[in-house]
Amino acid sequence: MAKSVFRVSESEAEKLVKLARRYTGVALDSGRLDFIQARLLPVLNACSLECFADLIRLLEVGESDSIKNAFIDAITTHETYFYREPSAFTLLKNTIIPRYVRDGRGPVLRICSAACSTGQEVYSICMVLDELSGMLDQVRIRIDGYDISDACISTARHGSYTAYEVNRGLSLVDVSKYFEKIGSRYVIVERFRRMAKFKTLNLLGELGAMPAYDIIFCRNIMNYFESGDRVRLFRNLASVTVQGGVMIAGGAEILPKEIKEFESHHGDGCVYYQRV
Amino acid sequence: MKVLIVDDSAVMRLMVKKIVKAAGFDAEFVEAEDGIQGLEKIESESPGLVLCDWNMPNMTGIELLEKLREVGISVNFGFVTTEASEAMRTRAREAGAKFLVSKPFTEESMRSALQPYF
Ligand SMILES: C[S@@+](CC[C@H](N)C(=O)[O-])C[C@H]1O[C@@H](n2cnc3c(N)ncnc32)[C@H](O)[C@@H]1O
Known about the structure:
The structure holds 2 protein chains of 2 kinds. Helix content of chain A is 43%, strand content 21%. Chain A contains 11 helices and 10 strands. Chain A has a 7-stranded mixed β-sheet, sandwiched between helices. Chain B has a single domain, classed as Response regulator (Rossmann fold, 3-Layer(aba) Sandwich). Chain B is globular. Chain B is 45% helix and 19% strand. Chain B starts with a strand and ends with a helix. The A-B interface holds A 29, 32, 77, 79, 84-85, 220, 223-224, 227, 250-257, 264, 266, 271 and B 1, 48, 78, 86, 89, 92-94, 96-102, 108-109, 112-113, 115-117. Residues 24-26, 76-80, 84, 115-117, 121, 147-149, 152, 202-204, 219-221, 224 of chain A line the site of S-adenosylmethionine.
């Protein structure tokens, strides 16, 4: 049978795995040819490329931002929804914010959603803070969402979601309170969009320009990485967390043992970490 | 992807399989009833992911993971247990487990823990 240019060969898959690692840290399994192919065929189409070899050549040179961005977007998994793992938001509401206020920290409360995907985590945090507005009236709030995918960041900035996306995790009351229906889309209220800033960023790179955060959400990203990059991710985040600040990981996720910068604690049925 | 489920309870193995399927993951299952069988299956089947109970006869889940580290076998390994104490989490972390899903493992919590491997 003739070799199809739309099939990825083993040696091409290996190169693509290396490129994925270089650009994002995401560790793909080079043995899973079907997976790699399914993720990257749309990139060939969208960028009008004729074969995987062309894609590899262009990524290795690294000159075309549009191809690089399409590649990064295709190999990363963006699954997210409002109030994902609700216990984390209960913890924020019942324990972390009240303690922040009680300790008289401030006047600016800085919260980060590291790997925010299309913004649902950030806006869920906004909703929790909105419910606590009485407690926070003396506090200026800044919420920053970071993700390596340009397309995700653009969606997050617009705060515009489908009916399916808002129904996943939100009550009808929340939807009517926090969204404006424009055509078939649900757009997050203006005051939340003003509270939140989004930026495309590789969390494994230099985070020098980031402010120090009081609270960091870093959920559902670490296990896409290999051990060394998992350590690097949390060292990076530790470097931008204030002393005593809180880091919330995914409910089942286990931090690498090398990370001594965060100490684990329990509250509201979930584990969270405090910067030592 | 090949997923090895190590659990001494057939009911639990069935339940884990059901949840993984319901979460929409395309998995081929291999099963083992204790840590020793698990070790054999890891060697013979090279699974892409191991979902392991904690308490089992002969060799427990954590003993299995520690054994894997000792002999230098690297595999994506997570615990699925009914109970999870702080001490268990610490030991799992020391041994290099990637996640620990504990009761109640809803489809949602399982889905979030497993997504990176599919
Ligand atoms: C599964 S989503 C998690 C979204 C959200 N935190 C949640 O828990 O619902 C993982 C996100 O990590 C992003 N990501 C992957 N590698 C990254 C990196 N090196 N730097 C920043 N973001 C990255 C992906 O683009 C993706 O949007």
